[in-house]
Write a structure and sequence with these properties.
The complex is a heterodimer of chains A (128) and B (274). Chain A is 76% helix and 0% strand. With 128 residues, chain A is an all-alpha fold. Chain A has one domain. Chain A is elongated and about 80 Å long. The relative contact order of chain A is 0.11. Chain B is an alpha/beta fold. Chain B has a single domain, classed as Spore Coat Polysaccharide Biosynthesis Protein SpsA, Chain A (Alpha-Beta Complex). In chain B, strands 3-2-1-4-6-5-7 form a seven-stranded mixed β-sheet, sandwiched between helices. In chain B, helix 3 links the parallel strand 2 and strand 3. In chain B, helix 4 packs across helix 7. The longest helix of chain B has 20 residues. Chain B is globular. Classes of the chains: A mainly alpha (128), B alpha/beta (274). At the A-B interface, helix 5 of A face helix 1, strand 2, strand 3 and helix 4 of B.
Chain lengths: 128, 274
Amino acid sequence: MTWLLAATEPVVRLTPQARIVAAILAVLFMLLILDLIRRDRLLERYSIVWFVMGLAMLAGAAFPGLLELIAKLIGVRDVTIALFSIVLMILLALSLNFSVIASRQSKQITRLAQQSAIETIEDPPEDD
Amino acid sequence: MLTAWGPGSHTGSSLEQNADTDRTAENIPIGKNRSVKILVFIPAWNEADSIGSVIEDARQHVPGAQVLVIDDGSGDNTAARARQAGAQVATLPFNQGVGAAHQTGYIYAMANGYELCGQIDGDGQHPAAELARLLAEVESGRADLVVGSRFAGDTTYNAPWARRTGQRLFSWIVSTATRQTLTDTTSGMRALNRRAMSLFATRYSSEFAEVESLQQAVRAGLTVKEIHVDMLPREQGTSFITPLKSAFYLFKTLTVLLVGQMRPRTKLPYEGDQ
C-alpha cells in the first residue's frame, strides 16, 4: 500500500493569508444564514445544511491539517485542488437534492391544481 | 331508470324525467345496461373555436354520458364556450400540461363512481361516434383500456410522410417495450374502466402522457386493446413538426420508456368487483 501513498504528500498548502480570508468569509456566511432565518426568508430545514457548510469552511481555515489529510486520502498533492473538488462535490449533491425537492413540490402543486379544478365543476347543466 | 348523470343524478326528479323522455327512444350505442355511469372528458387548452362542436358531437353520440371539459388554464374563452355547449367544466388554475389534465379526469371519474370513462381531444380530430365504439369495447369486458388508433387495420387517415414515419418508429419502440402491438401510441382517444382509471389516478406521466401510460398499463397487468378509428384532420392547432424537435422528442420518449421499464411494478389500486 505504501507505493500508493508515496507520491501524494501535499506540496501546495493554504497560505496563512488565505486561511484568514476563508475564516472571515465563513463567519460572514453564517451570519447571513442566521439573518435569513431571522427574517423568515429561509426555512430552518433548508438552512441547517448551509450552516453546516459554513462551519466546515471555518474548520478548514482553522485546522489546515484537515484539508491536508483529505488531499492525502484522495491522492492530490495540491491542497487547493482537493478543496475545490470537495466543494464541487458538495454543491453537486446539494443541487441534485434541490431538484428532488423541486420535483416533489411540482407534483404537489399539480395535485393541488387538479383538486381545485375538480372543485370548480358546477352542477350538471339543465338538459335541453 | 337513467342514472348516467354523475353527481347530478340526485339533483331532482324533473331532470331525471326530462332525461328519461329524451333518451328512452334513442338507441344508446354502448352497452346493454343503460344505468352504467359514463364520463366523457375532453382536455382542452385554448380550443375555444372547436370545443363547442366537439361537445355537441360527444353529447349526440354518447348520450348517456356526462361530458366534462378539462380546461388546462386556457387564455381564451374555452371554458365559457364549453358551458354554452352544455358541458361541465373543470378549470385548472394554470396550464399544467396534457398529462395533468388527463389525470384530473381520472381522479374525478374515480372519486365519483364512474364505471366507464372516455376521452377525446378538444381540437375536433376525434369523432365521438368512434369513441362510443371504444366505450362499448371496454364495457364488454374484453379490455381495461381501449385506444383509438389511426393505423390499426386499413386507414384513410392522411398524415404527412415524416409524421407517419415517426409514428411507425414510436409504435415499434412501444410495442417492443410492452410486447404488444400498439400502432398509434400518441392517440388521445381512449376508453377505460375503473381498473385502468385507478392506476392513472395514482400515477400519470405529465409530459409523455399517452406513450408512458400505455407502458404503465401493460406492466400493471391491464388488458390494452387497439381499435381502428377514422380521425379527422385537426380543426385547430398544430402538432410538433420540425425534424429537430421531433428527433429530440423521440430521444426523450426513448429515455422515459427505458426508465419506465425499470420502474417497480405497482399493484393496481382498484381490482374491480369480479
